Amino acid sequence: MKESHETEILNLIAYFDVFNYPLSFEELSKFVSISPDHLRKYIADLCEIGIISNNEDFIGTENLKVKIENRLVGNKKAAALKDKAAKNANLISTFPFVRGVLISGSFSKGFVSDDGDIDYFIITKPGRLWIARTFLILYKKLFLFNSHEYFCVNYFVDEDHLEIEEKNIFTATELVTLLPMVNKTLHQKLVQNNAWIKAYYPSLFHENNTISEPKRSTLQRFGEGIMKGKFGNKVDNYFMKLTLKRWQKKFGFLSNEDFEVAMKTTTNVSKHHPNNFQKKVLERHQEIFEKLIETYEENTNVKAAV
Fold first, then answer.
1. pLDDT (tens digit, 9 = 90+) per residue, 181-228?
2. What are the residues whose beta carbons fall under 8 Å from the beta carbon of 171, sequence distance 6 or more?
3. I need a surface site. Which of 144, 158, 217, 232 has the fewest CB within 10 A?
4. Domains of the chain, each with CATH number or no CATH
5. Rounded to an integer, what distance in angstroms lies between the CA atom of residue 109 and that of residue 276?
6. Chain centroid to CA 147: how far?
7. 179-182 sheet: strands from edge to edge
8. pTM
């Protein structure tokens, strides 16, 4: 099937269907390169041949009513946690070498499941990413008793390496829906360094009218004062190697290829996704998308024959 507006719509519906998350018409219109009037016509045509459904202005596939109900419950939970998310983001920003804080995952899309958490995407000073990460992990272990609930710090990049290497619909969606919490300038720089996203999404990037500007805390001044120069370089390198060794032992079941993506460990990037969620999502998305396309082609061929 050639690239078309129908393909664009079905591709996005298939992606969010992986999460059983039907999009509202307003959301879908922001994600695609189609005018609202034309989008409504395409949606009506796709609904008419039974590929997708439209209920209360939400668009999705089978069991749409149940998915809408579950989505609305998760939306309310996310709204109730808005202040907590902002509080934690501001707290994270006070740690040594942290320069910017954003929220990723389901919360950035306005949803929290019953067992969900809040995922933070953290930008650090170059050459000090692993010190920043270690301080935050120690805080979580000592003061939050290693709880992942509402304080999941699993993705770090430094401010000189903001372009994401893996370029696919998963990473594009995560980037385009990142919710900036601290340091608007760095968020804008992140957007500029990932212009490739436009191949997936035309223009949408989250804004946050209450985004905080970074402030130098006493903890930052103290920690960064100690970890200067060659000593800081050695400590950062030590923490990276220590973490890598631990992860290689703990997640040895991953192939080298999967480990490189899910547990990326370099001087300027740290990812901690042992379930390799990205791979599972991409595989499931492709499966749903191919099924929708197959159904679309079958119906349009029948219609053409008639």
1. 999 999 999 999 999 999 999 876 777 788 999 989 999 999 999 999
2. 164, 278
3. 144
4. 5-76+281-305 (1.10.10), 83-273 (no CATH)
5. 20
6. 20
7. 179-182, 98-104, 119-124, 152-158, 269-271
8. 0.93
